[in-house]
Design a protein that fits this description.
With 1214 residues, the chain is α+β, with helices and mostly antiparallel strands. 31% of the residues lie in helices and 19% in strands. The strands form 11 sheets. It has an 8-stranded mixed β-sheet with strand order 6-9-4-3-10-11-13-12. It has a 6-stranded mixed β-sheet with strand order 17-16-27-28-33-32. A hairpin with a 2-residue loop joins strand 14 and strand 15.
Amino acid sequence: MLTPAYCKFSSFFYPIGNAPAVFLTQDIPPGARADILLLGGGDVRSTLFTSHVDARPMDITCCDNQRAVIARNILLFSLIIDDDGRKNEESIGCIYFHLYLDQKARSLLRLQAKKLLKLSTTLDTWQQSQYGSRLGFCDSATLSDVRKMWELYSLEQEGDELSQFQRLIELALEKAMEYGKARGFGPSYSPHVSELRSVLPASSGTVDDFDRLCRHFGKHWSTELKADIRADARHPNPMFLTLKDDAMLYCGCNPLDGFHLITPYVSSGSGSQLLKPNKGMSRLKLILGSAKKEFSQWASSYRKHSSSITIRFFVGEALSFAHTLQHKRTMGANTAGWHRSQHRPGPLVLDGLDYLSGNAPFVFDVIDASNLFDHLSPLTLLTAASPLLRNSLTSTLYTEFTAVYRTNRLRLLDCMLCNQAPTTLALLGLFPVDYWTNAASFSSADEDLLNRTTDPFHKLFMRTTWKRPVVMRGSLGPQAGLVTLQFDARQLAHVLYRVYVNMFYQENVNPDPNLEYLQPIPRSMHQRAAFASFVGLVKTRVECDWSSAMNILLNLIAERPGAPKNLLRFQELIVYFHMLDIFSLEDTIQWSSHCAADWLPIQAAPSTTPSGASWGDLRDWKNIPPVVCVTLKIPRAKLHILLKMETSPMFDGTPVYCSVGDAHSPKSNRRHMFDACQLAFGEVSTIGTNYSDSFELSITEDEAGWRGSSALAVSFYVPSCSLLLQPRKTVISFGFEFLPKTPCWYLGTVSAMHETILEDSANVYVTRYAPGQAKLPIIQGFAETDFTDPSVVNIGTKFSLSVGVDLNAGAIESMIGRFDITSPEYQSTLQDCKVQASTESPYQVAITLGRTPSFTVAFPVFVTKNLKTRVARKSCYVEVIAPVATNTEWTKHPNFMYPIHLVEGKPANWNMPYLNLKYCPVIDSRLITKFDWFVPHVDLSGSSREKNASLTRTLAEEARSGLKGSIVTILTESRRRRVFNLCHPFNPRSNRIMIFPSDIRVDHANRTVVLDCAILPLHTELTAKLAGKLPWHVEGQCYHTAEFLHIWMEDFTMELFKHFLPACVERCRTWEHRDDCEYASSSSVPLSVEPDKPFLCTCGDGIFPAKFTDLENWGELSKHAVRAAISPAFWAPYVDEVYRRPEEADHRRGAKGGVNVGKASTDGCATCGKAKKDDGTLLFVCGRCKKVKYCSHACQKADWGVHKALCKDGRNGS
């Protein structure tokens, strides 16, 4: 009930994922066990892919709101486990991906479903089965739901049953096609982003292939190209059905979307992980064969590792599940008062055997929320998920978001978090590393180009990595966690009020142009209960005078200007404040007696005495709770207005609400509205005495839903004092809200569909708790164990962290770290010493008292270098005041791009994903010159800011530009150069780093390329040792050759490389760091950035696969070299923009009638911006328009899709 209640007659059924599989553990160092939570579970692709590339033990908890998705996933996993001889591999793939099955596959599915039904009569029998230790259930309700689907799968499909199945499939297809046609997309239409994303970064030149494949699948719902084989598949596949006939297959379903299909375009087929094409094999058959091969490999790997992988499943909503896990973790209770779904009556009770025994995890190393940001309020989701993230530097939360193209991406995180991003991030205890470092693992430029050329809606995919902030630096390295934030009550109230205003900004009568950046998150994602859940989390995060803060916050909300409907939902806000233990209703009523607002929607009910034995109404309830649940039963006939909307294919549902008020009051427009409603179709039954604590309500669900005949029961919580004002005549109503897509021509001006009065006991029920519940819903928030006291490492001090707030902006503007000196020695030193504060990293500050060891403070966000200190020598404390930074602070920290932290003495990447090079296919170097995507993909790692020569850059930006430019050179030249020498232009034989390329590979998980190479750091000692063994070294001179290339760089760029390369080594290591690792002994990564000093540890030296290179003297050189994986260093979409040439920007503005087009760039290559060709010669111009320049034919070919319109314009204008 943390999202607005929607009336939707048809819900999408997503049997197949529509994005390529991701590597779930790519930010966790190899080897360690990983506990994983999939909040947007979806299909099996990412689980299978991760088990293929990572053999570590894993415990995976998978949540999905659709039982059909969970049922088909468990059945697939069981089939894979059983198929040890791989005899049924082809049939298993068909069962999961094809709409129609041949007799063999249909029989296999039916027999497997019967087998699972026999083994799953109870949770105990399932646990004792051969699958029980590998596949589990979080609760008995999930088992019950899944069994219903397996019963459907087990039917014989003979005679009438076959006809019924056929009709159900046809109906599902008709709905999908109608919906897709109305919106201009679907499997029978041209490919869109989801299909082409599977071949990134090589999407250019693949559109025709995927157009044919999309049309083929849209026509046949099968990937099989041969008509005779398809003709044998006559049986409808029940794995594409749900038990509800109102469910609709997602119109964009395509089995190819979940795979990585770049391999056929970049490889000749060598290597065991690749499909080896037969002579004469068509491109389409090669693509489909590649997908089948990948699925086969994934399945084999999962079967091999399944004994060390536990997957448990939950059917229900992610928010309810997350909050229940929070409560279970902290209090040990199996339920937290939430329903499993907003549209089903069952309570969420974690009664699975692993939860009863305590074997299931409650905090996680990885949380993947998939694309839930597209369907839920991002702030509400992060509020639920953040407390479940383990306090570890490597623990990671992933989210995906599809932003419309017109979105101001530089403020998108502010939009999602409903305040200035650093403020909300500090309260959530999350650290989005790509946002702060402006370094990402995937190319937003590729996404931008893909969307601009194929997506009519111009949406941009963004995947974000969130971590826990560093709180202190201990003896074994930095530690992650939380430190309590101290607020002044007024400051906290203004921060929360700003979140409130931004959440509900669309309620303003006159839209505020300053809030236009909030448009990407629609108003329909937010309601007051969600805001209360965030405030509940904040209460566990901060220290302040809470009562005073809530009084001030309620004053601000009550007096909010320009939003007349604001107070109509005030009761719902205070109800959830009470239920979530934020601010009691009694305290709210007391506050209201002192509030100066003209009208307040809350007041105490009068105390009266019945004239007889009882009132016969709500007044008979002894000790009535402050909050009660009202359930309104709505007859089916009253829903006809909503049912009429179904005839509109553009109707996606409308939010509904309930209201409480006095219909006869002259201020009837001030009825109290409640959006947090629980909806369920079914039969209502009661037990106990009405108007008492014993009165309970239960609903027997009618699974036919909107297609059935049962009444609709809508439940919501209200303050009992409002009902007691008119205990019989209070009007209870149910209505809907108009949205831009609401088909108003069916509705006239009516928005209230049904209303009755409180004394209508046949249709209105008032109970202590919601139907099926025995407690109010709970938001647990952070646990006490989540917090760390940095004083334990700053011996002799007591530390506290407070904030400074800009009251007008409602945002944190400074962090104040205070050290109260408790050590007598330090107290004495403080009296006459110099106190200095210095920045050690963008979030860490050191304070030194004279010559004593420094104290360190780690802030939860980036801070600027404009530090101030406040010293109280008599009171013996020191404060450091650090202004909170914006997302441009990275421009001042040259080396904080890919930080590495020591975790228990071992290095761990914080912003560069790990990968297994064994499963990264090799790109055929002979084909690279034919690729029109390779150079643009690599080169557009430079952002708009980095490629704008007119901007004044900081040293950090110059270093980054140098790093990125060098990486571009290494990647583009590696096909013909065998050695790269990184050195200073005036001293090429000193402070050198040598790179020996082996292969360019595909990084499937991040949709980019990676150079498999060796790093040889030639410090003074090693250079002397290798004297005479470097065949390209000629006494007295260093020079370029056909195979050897110098890459000149300034000292600050070389320093950045020494921070970058240890991460490249760490990400692909297959070895363990020794106990005497130099990183651990020096407590530093890199070891040094000084010239001619070692910067890499030697733990991985000499460990290379066979035939890594045939370089002369490699046997001797390899002993001192280490393997590394170098990828382009991409910019982050929250921080920067894709580079566009001036004439392209002019062309786009001109398309809107604004600016003249045809003016070409004269600065450099139109694609990559280079001033000259790689060989130093001048650029050549387009032979057609004679205006645009290029450095290579590859760049010219890559640019043609955009330039052809300009080229035509230029020709016509000449």
